[in-house]
Write a structure and sequence with these properties.
Elements lengths: L2 H23 L8 E3 H8 L3 H13 L4 E2 L4 E3 L5 H22 L5 H19 L3 H16 L5 H14 L3 H4 L3 H4 L4 H11 L2 H25 L8
Antiparallel strand pairs: 1-3, 2-3
Helix pairs in contact: 1-3, 1-7, 2-3, 4-7, 4-11, 5-6, 5-10, 10-11
């Protein structure tokens, strides 16, 4: 195989993997829904080989689980798994925010404001997939300046497991988001208030916990479905 062909093959593999990973993280793939290698390959216009490799990677990351040799799915959420995921976010993200704070400049703060405005527009349009994608983009943009590769990888691994259920967290937006925690976080960034920033991040995550927790309780602990 020529060098150019090898690079093209690798770029296709990476594109397929990034596309599928983004779809899972933003909740475009419903929990419990079977995903076939052939179906994804046809959708993306590629051969089955890069799709198979991408799905295997996502299974290894805990974002998907095998059903059989040709099908995978997003695992259904359970109350215990949900609490573990939220606990991981609460452990990782306030730390990441505190580390990033001294390195967030005006340009990055402007980007955060733009993303937050876009989130509001997505909510208003009832585009919950887009709002989920933007919510993770907001957090990633905030943490990036000082997030070591290990810390950022850990957070994204957690987001992969939570993303498919974020639409449930925003199903009752007025109740769950009475206070704009992102605005609080940006205010803390402007004033250099590390404690205020960590408090806003914790509250932002716990707002999701409150809504999803109530849903779990109303279902009597039955695993969540899309």
């Amino acid at each position: 195989m020529a060098v150019g062909e090898r690079k093209t093959e690798e770029s296709v593999k990476q594109r397929v993997y990034r596309t599928l990973r983004a779809r899972v993280m933003c909740g475009a793939v419903a929990p419990g829904l079977a995903i076939t290698i052939q179906g994804v390959a046809a959708d993306l216009g590629v051969s089955t080989m890069p799709v198979r490799e991408a799905l295997h990677r996502l299974v290894a990351e805990g974002a998907l689980e095998h059903l059989d040799n040709r099908r995978v799915r997003v695992p259904r959420m359970t109350p215990a798994k949900f609490e573990e995921i939220i606990a991981a976010r609460l452990a990782l993200e306030p730390l990441a925010a505190e580390r990033a704070l001294p390195h967030i400049d005006e340009e990055r703060l402007d980007r955060l404001q733009k993303i937050d405005a876009d989130i509001g527009e997505a909510y208003a349009a009832d585009d919950l997939l887009r709002s989920t994608e933007l919510n993770f983009a907001f957090h990633r943009t905030m943490y990036e300046p000082k997030a070591a590769t290990v810390l950022l990888d850990l957070m994204e691994s957690v987001w992969l497991r939570l993303g498919p259920f974020m639409r449930l967290a925003t199903a009752n937006l007025e109740e769950s988001y009475r206070i704009d925690r992102h605005a609080e976080a940006m205010g803390a960034i402007r004033s250099g208030d590390a404690i205020g920033l960590k408090t806003a991040i914790i509250a932002d995550i716990q707002d999701g916990i409150g809504h999803l927790g109530r849903h779990f309780l109303s279902e009597g602990g039955v695993p969540l479905k899309a």
